[in-house]
Write a structure and sequence with these properties.
387 residues, alpha/beta, Rossmann fold, 2 domains, 6-stranded mixed sheet, 5-stranded mixed sheet
């Protein structure tokens, strides 16, 4: 074998190792409840299988899954959500499948409810953090939304640890822009800090669609319901108890000058709520008073009262709210983890930037062998799989 052929063969080993690294995923037959027709269940099953678009998973055939379930004494997919200890142990002994996607579709009035969960086949446990819930009017709408839901469900665990910002509770007479401006500014600042958030527009759309767009100091179970709908770990909600722009007249006796000056006041708190329990994990109070004379006259010459109010929001969130959120127990670990992740990415990028070829322009054989032994599994079993 000449040198070029050797290089090609070694490269194939490395690529093959990567191909077999993907975890195997099986899609169990959906469980139908509430009179959902069998034809719709079958159609939904096909939609699920055809919508799996992830390089991290290799899809296992229905036949292989059925045989596996038969071997451990399971005859229906409904058994998968309530395995006993013996069945969990037997499921863990079966080789070939890492995860099973279990789903349930039921009728609720004129709408369809769909729940999808990930079962770890090695332990028999349902991963409660990896759950997707959809409520739609019919199967066609479900088909339209299923791909995005599966993408979230099958994504890396880090991507699941998101939060959602709920509409603020405003307990005072306030201008119409307050709620939107406050939340948009809060979202931007949290994203700048590297926190993962459900998009504000998506939050509004999902909650409104489920008649939950007025979440105002609800019982914990309602926050849990909102958390499941939004597929988030935590909920963020502000309560504003004071918002005013004071217009104060002044006269300077010595010069005869007169006019008005503006002072802004905003008070309230931001609650951090567990989407699993509905309990408050922390509260960040804020109380800001801004004398706008500190802003150059040239900047605020044509400002309206609303401009002063919006500036007050831009001041209090980065100076008071965000530091409090980042120091709270609920987000402190995430902030530190994000910093470590960023550091690791920087070091990885620096390492990848180093030359990996010799002066001849060919990759060293020793390096290829090293990479192959590092990336490949100790034993690579050649088997027929559906990519």
């Amino acid at each position: 074998m000449n040198f070029k052929k050797l290089i090609t063969a070694l490269a194939c080993v490395v690529l093959s190792a990567g191909a077999f690294a993907a975890d195997k995923l099986a899609v169990a037959e959906p469980v139908g409840k509430g009179g959902v027709p069998a034809a719709d269940i079958e159609a939904f099953w096909g939609i699920l299988e055809s919508s799996i678009q992830s390089d991290e998973y290799t899809l296992v055939s229905r036949g292989a899954l059925k045989q596996m379930l038969t071997e451990i004494g399971l005859t229906t997919s409904s058994d998968l959500v309530s395995l006993n200890s013996r069945q969990k142990a037997k499921l863990g002994e079966v080789e070939g499948v890492k995860y099973i996607l279990v789903s349930e579709i039921s009728k609720f009035g004129t709408r369809l409810n769909c729940t999808m969960r990930i079962l770890d086949a090695t332990t028999g446990e349902i991963d409660q953090a990896r759950t997707a819930n959809l409520r739609v009017k019919d199967l066609d709408e479900l088909a339209d939304e299923i791909e995005a839901a599966l993408q979230k469900l099958l994504s890396d665990d880090k991507a699941l640890h998101r939060s959602a910002i709920l509409a603020p509770v405003i307990k005072v007479s306030a201008p119409g822009y307050l709620a939107d401006d406050f939340n948009v500014r809060l979202e931007n600042e949290m994203l700048d800090k590297g926190l993962r958030l459900q998009n504000l527009q998506s939050v509004t759309k999902i909650l409104k669609k489920n008649d939950m767009d007025n979440l105002n100091e609800l019982e914990p179970k309602m926050y849990v319901k909102a958390g499941k709908l939004l597929e988030v770990e935590m909920l963020i909600q502000a309560t504003i108890t004071r918002f005013e722009i004071e217009k104060i007249a002044y006269n300077v006796a010595e010069t005869g000058a007169s006019g008005f000056r503006y002072i802004g006041n905003i008070e309230g708190s931001v609650r951090i709520i567990s989407a699993q329990t509905g309990e408050t994990l922390g509260s960040v109070p804020f109380d800001e008073r801004v004398d706008f004379r500190s802003i150059p006259i040239s900047t605020r010459r044509d400002w309206t009262v609303d401009d002063y109010g919006k500036h007050l929001i831009r001041t209090v969130i980065p100076q008071k709210v965000i530091p409090g959120i980042m120091k709270s127990p609920a987000f402190k670990d995430k902030a530190e983890a994000k910093a470590e992740e960023k550091k690791a990415d920087t070091e990885k990028s620096a390492g990848e930037a180093k030359p990996s070829v010799k002066s001849s322009g060919l990759i060293g054989v020793d390096q290829l062998l090293k990479n192959a032994s590092k990336d490949a599994s100790p034993t690579i079993e050649l088997e027929s799989v559906v990519e």
